[in-house]
């Protein structure tokens, strides 16, 4: 992807100017995106992006530049410019002739580039037809298709020289239902770190009908009442709540600077004893997984909270220096245009000892949050809010009426202590996370859990 001698020259130039650490990130990315609305193609794009990012660390200072001109002359010129002001001796760093990182394999069978464009369009049409014919209240169906093949090369002054290929595909189905002038939407977005064979492993029509069912249920629902009440969050992408509420506060980009509610709390109880939180970027073929992170570190299973005790953080190389700790395979970036930092991969609450049925039957009155659509958090305070895509009242220990317009408001530290039941039906959903190093593919999941009291926002119809 980039001549080895050129990589060596970049590292030599940077270390000669006093850089403590030098990293070269090379990317060659092929992406296909198709967007259909009502069966008509709104957008169809197949493109390639190629570029190089150069990062130099001097002490705790970071210098970063990127370019899509991969000529030796340009790359050396950029390296010289970003090292201006760094003073140091010639360290003559050499790249180890062998790769010291071996990427975890995420097998694929069919490269998306080997699948005809017409076949990809046919996939979107199948989803559209299944959703549109679900019920007469369905007014519009949008289907977005994505595949990506990202080839990367990472080399640094510590001897890392490693290449990897990431093959992803995903289908996002958004269904609108309309009744009496009101519109509600349902969404599903199955995806995986694998090739086009993914569509032979899932039932496209079943996913489309699920999105339609969600939209129909919500358009016919009453509005959610507001107040403090127990909240049961269903398994799967309901884990986005903990991704936002506490995951970001466990990233070293916040922790290392003391800007997190969890800074300096290793070994302390920060959650209920029934809570074990994990981030694992090595799960085979999972949407948020990687063979190596974007700094060339092997991905791994990181235990963050074990039975309520804080066990670890998500750490990238720069913040590892700040914290005097080891990197955890958590350095991520959207592309060569972004400097990496600590980010989540597949983050989930692990299985507990209860069942979903036990949790529901032991909740006299409350809210059942079946789907979470979006949320945000302030890592410094842990304050968060989430909107629910599908919710129901729990009355007399049973799930009853659907309600719409529900939001969950709270604090990450508080909610961790208030989880009092965790089921044994772990499932991980697929999504995106937006932060300083760009938009990333992430998994978020959990079993069904109960929070004994939360602030629920809603309104009367």
TrEMBL record:
Keywords: Hydrolase, Metalloprotease, Protease
InterPro entries to which the protein is assigned, alphabetical: Metalloprtase-TldD/E_C, Metalloprtase-TldD/E_cen_dom, Metalloprtase-TldD/E_N, Peptidase_U62_metallo, TldD, TldD/PmbA_N, TldD/PmbA_sf
GO cellular component, as recorded: cytosol
Domain Metalloprotease TldD/E central, first and last residues per copy: 112-218
GO terms for biological process, alphabetical: proteolysis
Top-rank taxon, per record: Bacteria
SUPFAM superfamilies, alphabetized: Putative modulator of DNA gyrase, PmbA/TldD (SSF111283)
Domain Metalloprotease TldD/E N-terminal, residue spans: 22-77
Pfam family, one: PmbA_TldD_1st
Keyword Protease belongs to the record: yes
Keyword Transport applies: no
The Metalloprotease TldD/E C-terminal domain, residue ranges: 227-458
GO MF term list: metallopeptidase activity
Family note: Belongs to the peptidase U62 family.
Name the record gives this protein: TldD protein
Native source organism of the sequence: Alkaliphilus peptidifermentans DSM 18978
